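[[Sequence with tokens]]
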Amino acid sequence: MSNSMVLVRGAIHDGTNTMASYTGSGVVFAHDDISTLILTAGHVCEIPERVMNSARERSKEPSKVKQLLSVVDRQEREYNAMAYVIATEFDACLLQVPLMDIKEIEFSVTPPKLGDKIFNISAPYGHYSKDLAVMFD
């Protein structure tokens, strides 16, 4: 699973300056002939309007303020990304990036049972590299 993990980078940018930046984590979810879908948290993809408005107020070019997303794989290659779909009610997002040569994650066909050990591999505070996978259980 750790090979399917990616770092998600987000920024609010006005064409000249980065107004804010953040990171999240995700997993390779699926591929088609030309792109890869990354599953991440919805709050990684969706910037609150109050944050965007604050960035516009501070920018010298408020009409150019926008969110930029990218994905970094385990080999530290970076891909431009776009939010493909955001499911706010589930706090889930699918990002679309150019085709990556990474195996997609395999989801269990059965839900966990009480007492099963559950693992999460992520990149808290952007701690991420090809040799590091932070794992929680």
